[in-house]
Specification:
The structure is a single chain. This protein has 215 residues and is of the alpha+beta class. It has one domain. Helix content is 33%, strand content 13%. It is built from three helices and six strands. Strands 1, 2, 3, 4, 5 and 6 form a six-stranded mixed sheet that branches. It is elongated, with a radius of gyration of 32 Å.
């Protein structure tokens, strides 16, 4: 018969396999972690800068459109309360613009802004051409509410004196026609939050996003 070998009391217990990393591997892992953190911070920084720029561009658009309305209103006071002609609205409004000293571009800087892409110009509504701001002197326009008459919209690359026909905003069809003309040049990569700024004939400057319009 075979005798069972006795267990030697001094033999160490069986060791389990363990993962041992050298200094090189640890350094590579550390570099990888640092790289991921740097990329994440860089991406967050870029997004933050883009958001800041878009917010700034919207404020500039609001300021430009407000200044243009004041200029057009000044023009109307000299021309029987009528707004500028569509085909030369920019030149006619420019004569009534004013800007603080040392403003880059001077008073003409109000005729364009910036967005996520190319320089933004403004597009005049044909319906506002010679629109009478003093209703009691223009009886046939008494039913037209100036708060529903679009005056200017933003459009990237729009040339000077650009103009289109936009109906009075009093029904869904008119709103659809307006939507087709809008470019939403701020936060442009956001399907719902893409934003544009609109000036109405009563002087209201309205900021709209894509999701503000009915699907």
């Amino acid at each position: 018969m075979f005798k069972e070998e006795p267990t030697h009391p001094l033999l160490p217990p069986e060791r389990k396999a363990t993962l041992r990393l050298g200094q090189r591997e640890l350094s590579l892992i550390s570099l990888l972690v640092i790289g991921v953190i740097v990329l994440a911070l860089g991406f967050a920084g870029v997004r933050l800068a883009q958001n800041f720029k878009s917010r700034r561009d919207i404020v500039i658009a609001q300021s430009n459109l407000h200044a243009l309305y004041i200029a057009m209103h000044g023009y109307s006071l000299d021309w029987d309360n009528k707004l500028p002609h569509a085909d030369q609205w920019a030149e006619e409004a420019a004569g009534y613009l004013s800007a603080p000293p040392d403003t880059p571009g001077g008073k003409l800087s109000y005729l364009h802004g910036s967005g996520d892409g190319e320089t933004i110009g403004y597009v005049y509504n044909d319906l506002a051409s010679e629109y009478n701001l003093d209703d009691h002197k223009d009886a046939h326009k008494l039913t037209v509410d100036p708060s529903r008459v679009v005056l200017l919209i933003e459009r990237p690359g729009a040339p000077l004196n650009a103009h289109v026909s936009i109906p009075v905003q009093n029904n869904e069809q008119a709103e659809d026609a307006l939507l087709k003309e809008l470019a939403f040049p701020h936060y442009a990569d956001d399907p719902k939050g893409a934003t544009t700024v609109i000036l109405y004939a009563n002087g209201n400057v309205i900021t709209k996003t894509r999701q503000d319009f009915k699907p």
